[in-house]
Design goal:
The complex is a heterotrimer of chains A (about 350), B (about 300) and C (about 525).
Chain A (H helix, E strand, L loop, with lengths): L1 H36 L4 H14 L1 H26 L7 H21 L4 H19 L1 H10 L3 H21 L32 H18 L1 H11 L1 H6 L4 H28 L10 H11 L4 H25 L4 H29 L1
Helix pairs in contact in A: 1-14, 2-3, 2-13, 3-8, 3-11, 3-12, 3-13, 4-5, 4-7, 4-11, 5-11, 6-7, 6-11, 8-9, 8-13, 12-13, 12-14
Chain B lengths: L6 H30 L7 H19 L2 H25 L4 H23 L13 E2 L9 H6 E2 L1 H19 L1 H11 L1 H6 L4 H28 L10 H11 L4 H23 L6 H19 L19
Antiparallel strand pairs in B: 1-2
Chain C lengths: L8 E10 L2 E11 L3 E6 L6 H8 L7 E6 L2 E3 L4 H6 L2 E4 L11 H6 L10 H15 L14 H12 L6 E5 L7 H16 L3 E6 L2 H7 L2 E6 L2 E6 L1 H6 L2 H13 L6 H8 L20 E7 L10 E7 L4 E5 L6 H9 L6 E6 L2 E2 L5 H6 L2 E4 L3 H5 L6 H5 L10 E2 L2 E2 L1 H14 L16 H12 L6 E5 L7 H12 L8 E5 L3 H7 L2 E6 L2 E7 L5 H8 L6
Parallel strand pairs in C: 3-8, 3-9, 6-7, 7-8, 13-20, 13-21, 16-19, 19-20
Antiparallel strand pairs in C: 1-2, 1-4, 4-5, 9-10, 11-12, 11-14, 14-15, 17-18, 21-22
The chains are: A mainly alpha (about 350), B mainly alpha (about 300), C alpha/beta (about 525).
Amino acid sequence: MAAGDKSRLDGSALATVLRILLPIFLALLVGALLLLALGKDPLAYYGYVVKRGLLSPTGLQASITRMAPLLLIAAGLIVAFRSGLWNLGVDGQFLLAAVCVAALAPGMAAHGFGDVITLGACFIVAMVIGAAWSLIPAFLKASHGINEIISTLMMSFLGVSFANVLIKIPFNDPTTTVPQTATLPVEDRLARLGDSTVHWGVILAVIMVVAVHWMMERSSFGLKLQIVGSNPRAAIHAGLNVKLLTYAAFAISAGLAGLAGAVDLLGVHGTIRADWNPAYGILVIPLVFLARFNGYAVIAFVFFFAVLMIGGESAARRLGVPTFFVLVLVALLMLFFAVTEFLDQARKKKTGA
Amino acid sequence: MSALLTEAFIGSLIFGALTAGIPLLLAGLGEQISEKAGVLNIGLEGMMLFGAYAGFAVAYSYSSFTIGFLAGGLAGLATACLMALLCVVWSMNQIVVGIALTLGAEGLTALLHHFQFSRSYPRLPKAETLPLPGLSELPVVGGALFDRNLLVYLAILLTVFMVWVFNRTQLGLNLQAAGDKPAALDAAGVSVKGTRFAAVLCTGFLGGLGGAYMSMVGGGLFLPFMTGGAGFIAIVLAMLARGHPLWVLIGAVLFGVSLSLATALQVAGVNIPTDVIQMLPFAMVILVLIIFARHSYLPPALGIPYHRGER
Amino acid sequence: MTSPEPLAISLSGITKAFPGVLANDNISLDFRPGEIHALLGENGAGKSTLIGILSGMQQPDAGSISVRGQRVRVTSPKAALKLGIGTVYQHVLLIPSLTVLENLMLGAPWWKVCDRDGAQKRFEELSQLLSTDLDPDVPVGRLSLGQQQQVEIIRALWHGELVLILDEPTSMLTPQGVHELGQVIRRLRDHGVAVIFITHKLGEAYELADCISVLRQGRVVGHLGKDEKARLSEEEVTEAVVAMMFGLEKATAAETEVAQGDAKLPHEGPAPLTQEGPPLVALQDATSQGQSGECPLRGASFQIWPGEVLGIAGVDGNGQKHLAEILSGQRPLAAGRLTLAGQDVSHGGVAARRRAGVRYITDERMGEGTVAAHPVSVNLVMKEIGQPPFWRWGLTQKGKVRDFATDKIGDHDIRTPSERTPIGRLSGGNIQKVLLAREMAPDAKLVIFNKPTYGLDLHNTLRARAWIREGAGAKAAAIVVISNELDELRETCHRIAVMYQGRIVGIVDNATTSETEIGRLMTGAEVA
């Protein structure tokens, strides 16, 4: 009896591993076929990605650095998705916050504010701007029940264009030829960890993901958000202030996206050129899904993805496969995850019956 | 002020409004079909992109606009087929699949463009037009409205056709029922999944056609990410039109106007940064949402997969 | 092989299993044309599954179906309709935004243009057969539930008049509506239709049916043929059928009464009560704002004294939902006043009302009463989130929540694998127990029950009604019971208020008022 239980346990563990590894394998396989069709050697490509994104010290540090904005965005998405809100507008929230910080930070640094005050002010401003950009979708959702998918996407497109206007007109650095914001001196950016090129924003990001995970799992606030997310009518029945909670979830989610913008700017770029839009948000959304909104799984997926991105960027220069390929891989990954999950459930239903 | 009201300005404004509005109209009508049947098709942007790429690539290699449009529609249809399989047959989350498809379409078309066209950037010749006798001779609006590609007229006829389908045919009843109360349709002996599958396919074909029009007629070339959110605007149009095709037409033209304002203003000699102009349509959507928030209507069963026996 | 009476449908050996349940176990039944055949059984006896199989929604694991002597397979609802088997489901299955005629036209091949003239002709034919008077061009959403049911019957007969299956058709109707339905069914029987009538109320079965079959735990446990039923007196039929339904030698009085279902026996109401001192609860001219499709309150007033149970009767959709929500604080009062023990509590939401001693057991247990994916323990404290002792400094005290939950599970006999089980996996009766446990408070002042036994099996029904009669676990609280089952109100309430179109059209004493009088009020006639 006990032995039987154990083997069943092992079986389910194996199934879990399969459920994660099989889609990854299938996505990489279909990706390989695509590369072959485009006349590229898939093994060389994947090998190069792993080498430059994971195995080389500079590559690994770049990958870890890249995790910072992705993780902060993911933290915000965990809050939104678990509250039943499809905040698909993180790109606009991210970019607007980054642009405003790009204007604020060099100014404050030049006027001799200390690092602590400058960074603190930048973080707060970024969060406020991100949150403010979610106010209209939150209002439409809370007061009129308008589907937030559409309103957040529209606000995102609007935000990206608006950020470009800001870069080109009020925040433009007149000393440069291309339109871009004033550059933050390297010594004023986020401090590095030891000898590495990794800045401490990564630590902040990991802390935020874990904090958000705990908030959703263990606090009364998190439970309230979860109830609003899974059954809004039950939330009303239980006397929760659904409107306020909707605003709060939007504000936290968008605020963290804004913080991501600040960290990416203050830690890595120091300036923003016109038409720069990394579109991290739309890439992180699938990852948060794949991780089933679990904070720890999100960290793992984001790391995997950061390696893919950094390696892919190197491969683009070296092997001539543009980074768009990474988009295709993520889409494939998502589809195959969905398919395996579906097949798994169908199998369970069958054996259960 | 008088400079703004010149014949050239009005002509180019109307011309541009139709050029930008037709893809929105086609995709919006398509989305309306699947929304009516209860499927929120967030992958519309992806379907348009595939349509744009396939339409351009095929039209370029076969030097035929007709085959190009057909290819664009079929590319959208194929994407929709995948979406329908995953979301309608297998009941997967419509939003997740929609995002994945859009993401995949962006990556794949950009990749293909990179390997095929990024060195030469070929352009298609100007699309043939079909001047309507008499009407195209009218001053100011004649050329802009009545000397257009055949697809423009077809898209407007399609709007009328859809009004008829929705109001007068069994198909129209089935679509409405599938989105309103799928269990009732099932009990009446009509397959809910079949109806929704077909609806999603229609969406894909029309979305693909809209995308093809964008690349083939609108620009004459394909660029990565060229739909730039048009698919999402089309979703909003369908949402606000509350199931009436004529409202999609009106909305598409209005958005077309705001999209074409930049070019028209340049013709009139007014220089405004393109980014400001690009903000216009999105700002308009938000404004419309705020003003008409209370009136937007979605079918009760929208986004919910149907399982027999769960009521 | 020649049978004197050809069978309309014959089932033989029908078996259907779901995970953990044998829903239909070797069921064999014959249905004859020109006969009304009642299928009786408690919830969970396998009635719904059997209908599902007959109407093509589900496929049997074993067994066969014959229609007019021909063996057939009913593979889909469409196939059933083609065979002339029409079903009227318990819940209305019409599209509210389409007109009567459009609803009836559903199901024709999709590529066709709607054949309005043909449909109109068939509609008139069937209207005449049923002697109903419906406007074919009105959206179904604007019809009363009784009229919607008539549309459903017409639709069920649309493709042929062989078999009509009615699933619990009286649950949404007034006594008068039930009477009219009876007339329609008899007309159809005389026309030669085989009518299958599913119910859990014996009284209805006795009154309407020619023969009765009883289902229990997925099996046919008894049958009363046409001649047999005609021969026996009502008491004898009742006794025989109740014994079959519950597998008893002799049923207890309470079980007989509940199974009877429409108050043929004299009801034993609650212990009499004298209204002493000031009322505990007073509602004055309450009005609410409703969205389209909802019936708002249009000025409702009543008073309830300590220990009193006030019943709210009425056909569904006459403002009962809004009344419950206004009392519980879930919906703001547009105008009017609510006082509780002399205090004005008109303003303030659910939390404030709960602190003031208001408890609300909703009828939508899954829709709003619980969060299906969350564990039983969380659902038990769902209305206390953030408050001590279960939360301290905003953090969940998991141990406290768990201990509280295990206590309640024990006290209320909630059958669940563990307190961590998602509540959505529990049966309806157990979910109702969770709600009762959550809303129990010794110091409660006002307890509102909305359809407390809807969808429950017999034992849980008895239990819930006893709970109400005993004062819902509170000392001398005012209790409001909203129900569309009149016998339930007869059994539990001191006074009964009748609602019609958002107004209270009369409050009558339970012990001294007749059923017909209440039924008359339910249709909107002012109190004499």
